[in-house]
Specification:
3 helices, 16% helix, alpha+beta, 11-stranded antiparallel beta sheet
């Protein structure tokens, strides 16, 4: 059975993420193994419906310092619009995923969670809340790791980006591991900004594609 405060947080999250909104999304990915390094960057306008990313309009995609090919752009768009089940964090404050976790109320502002599912979409850690039960920050260790990684940690911040509408504004993932005998690591940094609310998906898509 969920602690009462977690039920309140889940209900508040559902209210605070409802509706249709767009945001500017910027992602950088830096990986190193020994002396080898690579830097990727991706920017797009994302369309969210009730908190879920459902459409993207890519504005820039650089892979290792080179512009992505049309095929690579199409692949990136598909990955974001149609993610695999283990690609997107199943947040413990999301009503759809509470059965995947156990919870402990650590204090009036901190909830600890432990994943019951071992995949890259889940993790164990904690999140903090404000007086209205909005999630402010989170940090967790992933329950499973990406290829070549042995440890993955994620931290993020959420904020009221529009009146009554909350979203993640910044997230950082740190991975460490090995490529064969060579130790390495990777950092993924995501920033979301310039949120706009729309009456429906059609209006939001029209705005996304406008020059």
């Amino acid at each position: 059975m969920l602690p009462a405060v977690v039920s309140d947080i889940v209900q508040q999250t559902t209210r605070a993420e409802s509706g249709v909104a767009t945001a500017q999304y910027a992602r950088t990915f830096d990986v190193h193994a020994g002396s080898a390094k690579r830097h990727d960057s991706l920017t797009f306008v994302g369309l969210y419906q009730n908190g879920d990313l459902v459409s993207v309009h890519i504005t820039s995609d650089m892979l290792g310092g080179k512009s992505a090919t049309p095929e690579q752009l199409a692949q990136a768009q598909s990955q974001y619009e149609h993610p695999q089940p283990a690609d997107v964090f199943r947040a413990p404050w999301d009503a759809r995923y509470t059965a995947d976790y156990t919870y402990r109320v650590a204090s009036a502002t901190t909830i600890e969670f432990t994943s019951l599912v071992k995949d890259t979409a889940h993790g164990s850690g904690s999140f903090t809340i404000d007086a209205q039960n909005n999630v402010l920050t989170y940090q967790y260790t992933m329950s499973a790791n990406w290829k070549y990684a042995t440890l993955g940690t994620v931290s993020g911040q959420r904020a009221e980006v529009l009146p009554g509408y909350w979203a993640t504004t910044h997230e950082v993932e740190q991975d460490t591991g090995r490529y064969g005998p060579v130790p390495g690591g990777a950092t993924t940094d995501i920033v979301q900004s310039s949120f706009r609310k729309f009456a429906n998906v059609t209006d939001a898509q029209r705005a996304m594609s406008a020059p």
